[in-house]
Specification:
Layout: H1 2-10, H2 24-36, H3 47-56, E1 72-73, H4 75-86, E2 97-98, H5 100-112, H6 123-135, H7 142-150, E3 159-163, H8 167-176, E4 181-183, H9 189-199, E5 203-209, E6 216-223, E7 226-227, H10 229-243, E8 251-256, H11 259-263, E9 267-273, H12 278-294
Parallel strand pairs: 3-4, 3-5, 5-9, 6-8
Antiparallel strand pairs: 1-2, 6-7, 6-9
Helix pairs in contact: 8-12, 10-12
Length: 297
């Protein structure tokens, strides 16, 4: 509990609860942190929230950054990705994960500046990165420009369906009629992401049925200083279609940083829904597949 308070305090979330107490004040601060990080607002410190709290404690230069197994994650990685993108080197999606694409961008920067080319953020590389930021960076991200240019390009690769609830099988069946579709069922998030990334999937649709939900939530990737334009457009198109379908629940579109949205490298939507009749489920599955087909995915 003391470590939780210390981590929250270091991020500016100062609780009035005692150091060993998880009271209402601490729960409110946890919820505020979750909101800032694009996580579900539970006020509880679950595994994902705790991982993000640890990641938030890393500042650029506090450790070496390089490709490891598992991959390094943290705010320092996101800071590095932003700086590289501002200098015109493409680190991939700004997601706080130091993967091969970010390492390649860092290597390109090192080669361009005459540094040791090893794909590792050393002190010498960081010093040069900071020096270049003071001189050349204009604040614009090359990743934004790339995302804008490529967001309308028709994608190849299968559609991956995953998650829990009655929509998984229905949507998979509907999407199969349009092309290559892989139903991974209720595999763990990391396994889904690993398979989808290896397949070069064009889209991942993740579903979650919640008994207490009376709306349909459609989430796309958004965190740090980036968001998925393709995901946002697809989510909005889906919401528009569903809003004109009789008897379906209200639809809300939100950018979030849920694990499934972060771990997958392609466009991903996470769709949450409550109980529905068989007719409504069939209509929802049909609309989802139709929107995907019409958007060229």
């Amino acid at each position: 509990m003391r470590e939780l308070h210390q981590r929250l305090d270091s991020l500016g979330y100062r609780s009035t609860d005692a150091a060993d107490d998880f009271g209402d004040a601490t729960a409110s601060l946890v919820e505020a942190f979750q909101h800032a990080r694009g996580l579900p607002l539970t006020g509880e410190v679950d595994e994902v929230t705790w991982e993000r709290l640890i990641e938030a404690g890393w500042s650029l230069g506090a450790r070496l950054l390089y490709v490891t197994t598992p991959l390094l994650r943290g705010d320092d990685v996101a800071d590095l990705q932003v700086r590289l993108a501002q200098l015109g080197f493409n680190p991939g999606r700004i997601d706080g994960i130091f993967g091969p694409v970010t390492a390649a961008a860092l290597t390109d920067f090192q080669r361009h500046r005459g540094l040791d080319v090893d794909g590792t953020l050393t002190r010498a590389t960081l010093d040069e990165l900071r020096r270049m930021m003071r001189r050349d960076a204009d604040g614009h991200l090359v990743t934004d420009a790339i995302d804008l240019v490529t967001s309308s390009i028709r994608l190849s690769g299968p559609i991956v369906i995953c998650g829990t609830g009655p929509l998984v099988e229905r949507v998979a069946r509907e999407c199969t009629s349009y092309g290559d579709c892989r139903n991974l069922g209720d595999l763990a998030c990391g396994d889904v992401a690993a398979q989808a990334n290896a397949l070069g999937a064009s889209l991942v649709l993740s579903f979650e049925a919640k008994e207490s939900l009376d709306v349909i939530h459609v989430h796309y990737w958004a965190s740090y200083r980036s968001h998925s334009r393709r995901g946002e457009r697809l989510a909005s198109a889906l919401a528009s279609r569903l809003s004109h379908t009789p008897d379906l629940a209200r639809v809300e579109v939100t950018g979030m940083a849920l694990p499934i949205l972060r771990e997958t490298t392609m466009t991903t939507l996470h769709i949450e829904h409550g109980p529905a009749s068989e007719a409504d489920l069939e209509a929802l599955a049909h609309d989802v597949a139709l929107v995907i087909h019409n958007r060229g995915l």
